[in-house]
Model the fold of this input.
Amino acid sequence: MIITAHLKKLIPLSIVALLPACSQFNNTTTETTTKPNVVVFYVDDLGWGDVSSYGATQVSTPNIDKLANNGIRFTDGHSSSATCTPSRYSLLTGEYAFRKKARILKGDAPLLIGTNQPTLPKLLNKVGYKSAVVGKWHLGLGDGETPLDWNGKVSPGPLEIGFDYSFLLPATGDRVPTVYLENHHVLNLSDDDPLYVSYKGKIGNRPTGDENPELLRQKADPQHNKTIINGISRIGWMQGGKSAEWKDEDFPFVTTKKANNFITKNKENPFFLFFSFHDIHVPRLPHPMFQGKTNMGKRGDAIVQMDWITGEVVNHLEKLNLLDNTIILFTSDNGAVLTDGYEDEAIELLGQHKQNGPYRGGKYSAFEAGTRVPFIVHYPNKVKSGTSDALMSQIDLYASLAELLNIELKSNEAIDSQNHLNAFFNSEQSARTLLLEETPHTFSLRHNEMKYIAPAKRLIPKLFTNKKIEAGLSKQPQIYDLSIDPSETINIAKHAPEKVQQMQQMIETIKKQTTREE
Done:
């Protein structure tokens, strides 16, 4: 029986599973080789099955596939959370976002990461790196006490947490203000048309989706139906700032140019580039150059656009003879979602495409597709290429780079990040045995191939019905054996009450942790 096969795997857990794996990597290698550049391609809402190297057949992603073929393609790689702001927080700080009570932020939210907090760019700065973030930010701006002045210096922001350069979409494409922020200032803002933003009520006289639906290029839900910019209604209200408005279709060229300019400027010293895509987040408005490249409509074409951007940056690295000595991590902030506020036919034109591969759920979900995402490491100087089934987390980039660069971490720094440098560089090495998966309404826990979803305190079916996502929420505990049930269809928790208790205790232990485990 299947249940019997499951129960054979229900071995007792040990607190030892919480400890980072000991690295066999030789630190002295950094003394005799050039410090590698680090580029993180952080795609938005890209699912495990959305690229051809992970099995997609309805869309082609040759540039990403080239990274996968020449690097390591991880099949069990994860973002730390099933939503964007928490995942970004964890990647840059090395700690789970629940420790900061992080949720998806409003467009005018204050900076989530403390200016005195250790961060990945600060870590790399210790050994001479220059750092940049280009693209979507969505980690807040300002101190939360003084209202943001979009017409003056917008601070604190990325520069105050360690980055040397930033070129941002301040929040996301579906939220105002729809302007670029370069370092501390809105780009191309005119003095005679000041910019104001509100998330409390309408300001100014710009049309909104509520009042002027005839002006919309895409129909939106009530949350996304406020100020119209470029024919798309957004979350929140915006007044003025006409000269500074972005055009969504220009994102690939504007952000790619900024990223490549940063690379060129810093080609003589080690650098860290956090390239944070807007694609394939809503609203999906691919440039005409990519429209019609798939039969999947705007979402499919946005994937092609995202692949082109990746190729342009990689080709620039190669042109400058930097590619061999650059660590590239290509991954996504959470799993895929098809409909998320706008009607763009992503569901109707899906065809046979499986955006999350064989995995259940998606963005927002406690099921595996919430955090299991494409995860590719490319580093010609070091990586032993191939396909790896190691259990990997983006949160471990922090401690792994610290190991590579021989930087000692403080006891209260990146407390959830583990050093798995061996697995990052060798497709035959194992990594985590235990992994926490955050969702907005509960926690999940992986212990090797066993998956536990803790009971949710409340169920919110309306949200997930609108998103067409299986939430994975239940008031009852859930356990799945992913080795024989990767789609999480058979809940075996009632047959294993001791396992439920043990895995819940593991979550409680992680939640109470305040320092790094050595």
